[in-house]
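Bug #77: duplicate submission created two jobs. Keeping one. Sequence:
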Amino acid sequence: MFAKILIANRGEIAVRIIRACREMGIATVAVFSQADRDALHVNLADESYCIGGPLSKDSYLNMQAVITTAIASGAEAIHPGYGFLSENPAFAALCQEHNITFIGPDAETIARMGDKDMARKTMREAGVPIIPGCDLVTSLDQAKAEAERIGFPLLIKARSGGGGRGIRHVCSADEVTQSYNAATTEAAAAFSDGAVYMEKYLYPVKHIETQILADNYGNVVCLGERDCSTQRKNQKLIEESPAASLSPQTRQQMIEVTIKAAKAIGYRGAGTIEFLYDGKGNFYFMEMNTRLQVEHPVTEMVTWIDLVKWQIRVASGVKLDFTQEDIVNKGHAIECRINAENPYQNFIPSCGKIEMLHVPGGPWVRFDTSIYQGYTIPPFYDSMIGKLIVYAKTREEAIRKMKAALCELIIDGIVHNATFEADILSLGEFENSSYTTDYLERWGGV
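Kept job's structure:
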């Protein structure tokens, strides 16, 4: 087992990893930007080092600064969390070059699955159902021809990156030119890669993802699924596990496909496969995230398996001590992402000092966060400041518990979205689990 791990991240996920390491008896090294000098992860870690200016490119995305700090501090491994360098194959390769363990899959796997076009081809070859579409398009003329073949509506999607960027919804031939140019331009600016491919736009659909854990010995376990269909502009807001709309047969098929896909690429560590589900028993591979997901706590709640600890164990060479037959999901868990933004004024970000903080309590209520009373939220990073997670025996009980927890959450000094999320939980489509990825847009709340 590792003696010391560097956490190449910030915010609630850095705190989450530090807590896991502390419980495992592992020393921690935090890195931080000049804007994060007073951040909680800086104070909780055993050692903390400033690695650059406030902007991510000068600090958390500065690979050389992170590696240099790891070497100087004597860290044996780096946990990237999610975002920043977590799916950067060059960084994973750099870790290997310096004999530092990257807690995640190898660089080749990250590169293969991070290239959305290559990922589609890989899954297709493995027998995993994929969305009808085409491989990379390299010109506007080709895009127009492929669009006519695929049929409308369709999506133009960036090969690299994520977060909803580089995606355009095309409803007719008249929109292809503008959408193709916009998608390639946005992708080039966001990911330094303007390559795009095209898929049939499936609707109405649910966004279902499955959680993987795989060790170095060929053992792959699927820890069930999460329904992540509550989204605003392709950004998730609420996640739950299990997905209430899946039949036992479809769930089992999805698990089997997930394991087959992971074994086909020799996967190692924690990962997620995302599917689109049409509600009729058909599901299609969308993409794979080769890292820990923001919403991993709901899986932890229904399986009682600590994903962060198992990431660390697997990276250190420990064999999984459970099999697929041991995974029994019990009860129901829901997560709400708490964002510092005003949902009633076009989701404008909110920064400032936390004047008062009251965290909900009670059985099976969890708040993963890095904020504290007196902390000032900087304007340089993602708006998510916490994740509120609840667990109950039934979905109905979990919804009631989450509503109560959201009402109890007090964060004075900034604007946040807790009331907005409570409103979503009261929508009929959410209550009966018939909601699909476009329901918030139809509701008009976004």
